[in-house]
Amino acid sequence: MTESILLTIDAGLARVTFNRPASLNAMDFEMGRRWRDVAHQVTSDSSVGAVILDAAGPAFCAGGDVISMGTSDATGSDVTEAAHVIHDGIRTFVESDKPIVAAVQGAVAGGGLGLMLTADYIVASERARFVSRYANIGLTPDLGVTTLLPAAIGRRRALQLLLQDITIDAATALAWGLVAEVHAADEVAARAEAIAAFWLSNSTAAFGQAKRLIHSAAERSFEGNLAEEARSIGARFDTDDAKARIAGFAAASSRSRSQSQN
Fold first, then answer.
1. In-domain check, residue 211
2. DSSP string, the chain
3. Which H or E element spans position 235?
4. How far apart are the first and last CA of the chain?
5. Closest by alpha carbon to 120, among 145, 148, 142?
């Protein structure tokens, strides 16, 4: 049986690939469980320094597989339980200290928006399109959409997407701040890999802690955030990685000052 989500881990890089292209990578019950399990596996693996989230086929993710759910004997309770399972995976990725880049090659709809926004940096194809479609089928948002979408683009624009049947293109998504970069379709994968390689070749643990601080800031007071920043930077200062990089920076700065004086 083909895995609904593929996972490879190599040289510090975890690649998580949605793999139900015939269903536009929409999540059914099994895929939701796989998503949760992959999230826990990746974030608990100390060898992983960066994550790429991508997808097979023409679409990135069409959200929940409402066709599968609607033609099964599933009840509202079953759907609620499935949402909790997928939410577990989303929360695990978002709250982790692993920096994540998403390579979005095609359409993103419904809960796919929330799944995409588990990534900290999003590279989109110029062919990508983004739409809600929840109300079109009489459902309400899930998969983190009501939290992650307004955090990315603001409350008013999030409401535009959720309360109207509109589709935005990649250029609009870039202007709104929904994605970080837009590239030609054949350049998206390579660009996402370059971003992950940049993290891994530098202090990816520090990037991961910066990501964690940003995501957790809303849960604390300003005073609490300042205290957590102080604790975090002190902890990083004591690591061998930071000591080596600080020493290298100091040496380079000393050489630069010496050359400027000669």
1. no
2. ---SEEEEEETTEEEEEE--GGGTT-B-HHHHHHHHHHHHHHHT-TT--EEEEEESSSEEE-SB-HHHHHTTT--HHHHHHHHHHHHHHHHHHHTSS--EEEEE-SEEETTHHHHHTTSSEEEEETT-EEE--TGGGT----TTHHHHHHHHH-HHHHHHHHHS--EEEHHHHHHHTS-SEEE-GGGHHHHHHHHHHHHHHS-HHHHHHHHHHHHHGGGS-HHHHHHHHHHHHHHHHTSHHHHHHHHHHHHHHHHHHHHHH-
3. helix 222-237
4. 68
5. 148
120 with 193, same domain?
Answer: yes
* pLDDT, mean over the chain: 92
Q: Are 42 and 164 members of one domain?
A: yes
What's the gap between Cα 204 and its chain centre? Answer: 16
Residues 124, 238: one domain? no
89: Cβ–Cβ under 8 A, 6 or more apart, which residues? 32, 35, 36, 37, 38, 39, 40
* pTM exceeding the 0.85 threshold for the entire prediction: yes
Q: Side chain identity at 246, as an amino acid letter?
A: I
Residues 224, 197 within the same domain: no
Q: Mind listing the pLDDT tens digit for each residue in 60-77?
A: 999 988 888 778 888 888
Token pair, residue 116, equals 């995409």
Same domain, 35 and 71: yes
Q: Residue 108 carries which DSSP code?
A: E
Q: What gap in Å lies between CA 156 and CA 150, rounded to an integer?
A: 8
**Same-domain pairing of 183 and 251:** no
